[in-house]
Specification:
This protein is mainly β. About 0% of the residues lie in helices and about 50% in strands. It has a 6-stranded antiparallel beta sheet with strand order 5-7-8-14-10-11, with no helix packed on it. Strands 6, 9, 12 and 13 form a 4-stranded antiparallel beta sheet that branches. It has a two-stranded antiparallel sheet with strand order 1-2.
Length: about 180
């Protein structure tokens, strides 16, 4: 390893004592050298600056020349349940739904919620739920409550406009229905 030291030595009349900023040993002034980080160090603690300190990464931003909007458009719909029992009591029950239709892959993703507040209850015996767009190929659906408990699943095959709803009895918990099917 090659060390580059300060070569200027002052005459004996200018010698004085100094302390190395790294090791703390007492040295004569001509034995201390100014390092790249402005520290005065002895020859044992002298080091050259790392070349990696001067490395600059190239600009890595990628800008697309043009873009298109997402082909999935989220739309709202109100699912219609046949055979769903709703007892509002002192609370409320609201049913909402959204779906996204992917025109490229010919798939519809749905999410519906039955929001229950207060002491309202819902229960489902043999019942059905309407789909926003008629299905032409297989689909699967999950029915969960707001605490993550799976209430049941359903599936569809072929051309259908409704799906079968699993049986549940629910008090003051939102029910989340999600799934996808082909169109």
């Amino acid at each position: 390893m090659v060390y580059h030291y300060m070569t200027t030595k002052l005459g004996k009349s200018y010698e004085y004592n100094g302390i190395c900023d790294v090791c703390g040993f007492a040295k004569k002034s001509y034995e201390l050298f100014k390092r790249w980080d402005n520290m005065m160090v002895c020859k044992e603690d002298f080091e050259t600056r790392n070349l990696a300190d001067f490395y600059d990464t190239p600009n890595d931003t990628h800008e697309l020349p043009w873009t298109r909007p997402d082909r999935q458009i989220e739309t709202t719909w109100t699912p219609v349940f046949v055979g769903l029992t709703q007892t509002p009591g002192t609370g409320t029950i609201t049913i909402t739904g959204t779906y996204k239709q992917d025109t490229t892959n010919k798939v519809v993703n749905i999410q519906a919620e039955i929001t229950i507040t207060g002491n309202a209850t819902t229960s489902s015996g043999p019942s059905t739920m309407s789909l926003p767009i008629n299905s032409v190929s297989a689909g699967t659906y999950r029915f969960m409550d707001s605490q993550g408990v799976l209430l049941g699943t359903s599936s569809s095959a072929g051309v259908v406009s409704t799906i079968i709803v699993p049986v549940w009895n629910n008090v003051n918990r939102t029910i989340i229905i999600s799934g996808s099917y082909g169109v």
